[in-house]
Fold:
Amino acid sequence: MSATVRALLLERDDDGPVRAGVTELAPATLPGGDAPADGEVEVAVARSSLNYKDALIVTGAGGPLVRDFPHVPGIDLAGTVTAVGAGVDPSVAAVGDEVLVTGCWLGERRWGGMATTARVPASWLVRRPADLDAARAMALGTAGFTAQLCCDALAHGGVAPGSGTVLVTGATGGVGSLAVHLLARSGHTVAAATGDPDAAGRLHDLGAAEVLPRAELEELAARPLASARWAGVVDVAGGAVLAGALVSTAPRGVVAACGIAGGRRLDVDLAPFFARGVVLAGVDSVLHPMADRPGVWARLATGVEADVLDRLTTTVDLAGVPAAAHDLLARGGRGRTVVTVA
Structure:
């Protein structure tokens, strides 16, 4: 490890505003002090990413997401193991392993990936797929991981290619845009819902066969049932958008819900459930079982075309994260943002 750790550090006095700035930290300030604690590893971080949750944390708009300051954000990281604490099985982690971490409360309850060095439990590590470099792994990140989990939920519920149109809400954001592409590449006919009237070209480029305004779903929210249109749904929005998607889902359709960007309350008639047998499947990427994660990443790594991922991705350095976070919340998510750490 170098003599110092370069990090985006968040500071806050009592209930005042969150201040974000790039600084040099002594290695001893990291979790574990001078070396990784038992069962933990040290990672030289190459890339992180900026997600909606990161933007809430960095700007201070996230309320109780972070309670203890100072804090290093970053719910994703990709890098190389540089030190291993006592008791770590070499089959789990060894010096030189190329790894990634997403979720697991990284960047929330634990200092995260927006620093040149991170310390994390070895049990959180996933070996980075060989066909993904660190930058593309973080272009996928939590957003891609969540999108793949949503696609898996539809498949597990019997929504197969050819069974009908699949709707993706919040389709211009990180999760939504990747879900559109993953579903289209696997053979589904995809409809993309968005509040951005200028996004149609980008969404068709990702594979969407149809683009509809978000307001069309919101207008359906108060109905007990609407015309059955969707064999499955990936919902990133929540709120009235999710309600409108549910009442217009076809019999025995599956709705995978993973976000609250449009609201965390759901007010919907029960008719979609007892009259059509619609399944509402919640998707959690933070605490998804570790044993299942390598398989999810393997499917994700081959499911997204590299050139499409590159077109979706912008890159910032640590100093550029605060401005990018404010922009993400002000304009809504558009594609993915990779953070160059080292």
User: Anything to note?
Assistant: DSSP finds ten helices and 15 strands in the chain. The CA atoms of residues 101 and 125 lie 5 Å apart.
